[in-house]
Amino acid sequence: MNLVRWDPFRELEEMSDRLNRVFGRPSTAKSDGKETMTVADWTPSVDISETDGEYLIKAELPEVKKDDVKITLEEGVLSIQGERKHEKEEKNKKFHRIERAYGRFVRSFVVPDYVDESKIKAEYQDGVLHLHLPKSDKAKPRAIEVKVA
């Protein structure tokens, strides 16, 4: 059995890296004693709201071109995928810090059975994707009177 010296700072770094991966932030990882920079997958923020007539999904996609976003619905799962591309390197430009994540992303959501899949609409404006998922007529609550015999 090998004894390993406890290093509280190493534990803090590892915990910080795990949290960074969860929140989609860049993290540092050590490989063979050398520190390397790795970028976690990017996950855009999403709000989901509901009215009597529809569900609305708003996804923040800053600096993502409309043509780089793909929305699919397959077997009751709605997926939003795309890519935020990194700026091209310029010879006279020096970056001091890069905290925003770049690259591919995918968000998937299970669509309730009572959504009218044929009427789903998407709008994209100012870096925000709006997905309208209208409810079908069978989903709207109905009141019926039951007579006691």
UniProtKB/TrEMBL annotation:
UniProt-listed InterPro entries: A-crystallin/Hsp20_dom, HSP20-like_chaperone, Small_HSP
PROSITE patterns, A to Z: SHSP
Domain SHSP: 37-149
Keyword Electron transport (UniProt): no
Gene3D superfamilies referenced in this protein's UniProt entry, alphabetically: 2.60.40.790
Listed CDD domains: ACD_sHsps-like
Keywords for the protein's UniProt record, in alphabetical order: Stress response
Coiled coil: none
PANTHER family named in the record: HEAT-SHOCK PROTEIN 20 FAMILY MEMBER
Family note: Belongs to the small heat shock protein (HSP20) family.
Name of the featured protein: Heat shock protein, Hsp20 family
Organism: Nitrospira tepida
